[in-house]
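FW: tagging you since you asked about this chain on Friday. Here's the raw sequence from the shared folder, copied in full. Didn't touch anything.
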Amino acid sequence: MAHTIEIAKSGRATCRSCRVAIAKGELRFGEETPNSFGDAGDTTFRWHHVKCAAQKLPDELRTALAAYEGEVPDRDELEKLMTEAEAKKPPPFPYADRAPTGRASCQACGEKIPKDALRVAVERDLERGMTVTKGAGYLHPACAAGYVEEQGGTHAELTEGLRKNTRGLDEADLARLFSEV
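HL: got it, structure written out here
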């Protein structure tokens, strides 16, 4: 989708991040989304203050800033906010980490994953009433390959994704992870 940056034409739009009005003449970020009230394929924008977008939608804002030809005040501060926000975001799936609690159960075998144990996170569908959203599902490293293959993936895709997306594990943890996967 084509997100945009522009100067607010009026003061009627409200920031979708902080819920405060965006003043007329202020730089704003437009997050393009499907228009649920229009015809199929119609889009609309969700407006954000540029600083709010830097914290909530750093990747999308960075792309829009690259295409924007106008003057952007406080550009250095925006870069800092985007970098901080990206560091807080979880990595893309699949990735491995240490379990912060002992509450998660393995999606494959159903057993609890102990606190501080290595685990593999994969994307799964979460049913919420009448809607389905995406979320993390956790696996013991030894269960991960079989589970991913049952879901239509391959062992090679799993290990490649883990190598690319895993952050915060030292070399010993990585060696142990890949010996178990």
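FW: Strands lie at 4-7, 27-34, 43-49, 95-98, 118-128, 131-139.
HL: agreed, and Residues 75-88 form the longest helix (14 residues).
FW: great, closing this out.
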